[in-house]
Amino acid sequence: THAFIHTQLYQRIHTITFIHAHSYNYIYTRAIIQPHLYTRVIHSFSYVHVYTPASIYTQLYT
Q1: Alpha helices of the chain — where are they, by DSSP H?
Q2: Each residue of 21-62: pLDDT tens digit?
Q3: How far apart are CA 9 and CA 5, in angstroms?
């Protein structure tokens, strides 16, 4: 029974560390995804900011 308790504890510790690693991995991937999203948003906004004055100028001059 003593060895059984030890294996139970070991399994619990193992699953806890696995969950922690999984959550860290999730946070890490989220941290990678978010800057990509931010750069995409920034790119689209800068594109809109560049595109809008250009369209206004073309409307004014045509």
Answers
A1: 2-61
A2: 777 777 777 777 777 777 776 666 666 666 666 666 676 765
A3: 6
